[in-house]
């Protein structure tokens, strides 16, 4: 028996250690898709976050040399500001997020957080400073409480509950048969996309990073789910620098800065009202999405 269970126990504990060590999707990327070309410098120092000022200086980037993707992106996101990246599919929005996380190195220019070039800091400190809310939150086969606390395993139950309340998912969890101890994931209770995302947001709130990177879901959500998620994200963004990769313009009208991308370049930037008044690309995108929403509403009623 011992011969059989020992290796199994050992594997179980390795698995658990790996799982415990993954504090968010970003670190999961880190582990599962570690890219040998991105390495800490021998003299890399931990990132010192003083306010969460994110700067892209004339950033150029390609995945393959023959195909430039970002063609000189300059962005300045002041501490506590919210910036929304919008633009057609393939324009480079997610690539900007990946570079901020240093999933790849820029091929020209530089990315800085509070004046420190990302290539000079340790990746672990960078990843600890950025909370990623991905389009699809991965849930583990464990309790919903564990799934939230996973961002900070030493968190108390009260802290987990406070994060769930802020993410507008507490009442839902309380309504489950075993509350926070209810098993979720593939082998447990299946949560809807919106519920899963709010668990992910609670996880990020508990991690309490100074910078948030939000990758908004592309899939259509019903109005109530969308409202719940927006409230949850607004709460998560309080007092943090937020970079949102936005797909639905209705969610970003309050952003401090809207950046409109097209084919790897910034073609417009400003606040919602100013961009509407300008009557350019953003105004046309807005008119198109508003017409689509009206058509959908008409079709539903
Ligand atoms: P979407 O709104 O569809 O998510 P996006 O604006 O976020 O699009 P990116 O994902 O940044 O666009 O992609 C920009 C371009 O880079 C696209 O043409 C895409 O095909 C290309 N690209 C993205 N990832 C890779 C990769 N790993 N290798 C090669 N090309 C890539």
UniProtKB/TrEMBL annotation:
Residues 54-288 form the ABC transporter domain. It is found in: Cell membrane. It comes from the Bacteria. This is ABC transporter ATP-binding protein/permease. It comes from Thioclava litoralis.
């Amino acid at each position: 028996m011992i011969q059989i269970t020992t290796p199994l126990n050992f594997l179980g504990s390795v698995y658990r250690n790996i799982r415990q060590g993954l504090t968010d999707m970003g670190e999961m990327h880190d582990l599962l898709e570690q890219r040998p070309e991105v390495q800490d410098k021998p003299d890399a120092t931990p990132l010192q976050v003083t306010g969460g000022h994110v700067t892209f200086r004339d950033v150029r980037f390609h995945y393959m040399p023959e195909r430039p993707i970002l063609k000189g992106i300059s962005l300045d996101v002041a501490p506590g500001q919210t910036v929304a990246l919008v633009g057609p599919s393939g324009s480079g929005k997610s690539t900007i997020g990946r570079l901020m996380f240093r999933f790849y190195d820029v091929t020209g220019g530089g990315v800085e957080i509070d004046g420190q070039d990302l290539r000079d800091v340790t990746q672990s400190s960078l990843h600890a400073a950025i909370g990623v809310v991905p389009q699809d939150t991965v849930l583990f086969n464990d309790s919903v409480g564990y799934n939230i606390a996973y961002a900070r395993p030493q968190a108390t139950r009260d802290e987990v509950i406070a994060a769930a309340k802020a993410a507008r998912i507490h009442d839902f969890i309380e309504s489950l048969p075993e509350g926070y101890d209810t098993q979720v994931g593939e082998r447990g209770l299946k949560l809807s996309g919106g519920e899963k995302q709010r668990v992910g947001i609670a996880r990020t709130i508990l991690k309490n990073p100074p910078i948030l990177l939000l990758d908004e879901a592309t899939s259509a959500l019903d109005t109530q789910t969308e409202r719940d998620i927006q409230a949850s994200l607004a709460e998560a963004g309080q007092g943090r620098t937020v970079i949102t990769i936005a797909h639905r313009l209705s969610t970003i009208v309050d952003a401090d800065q809207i950046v409109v991308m097209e084919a790897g370049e910034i073609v417009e930037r400003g606040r919602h009202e100013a961009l509407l008044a300008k009557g350019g690309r953003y105004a046309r995108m807005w008119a198109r999405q508003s017409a689509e929403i009206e058509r959908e509403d008409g079709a539903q009623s």
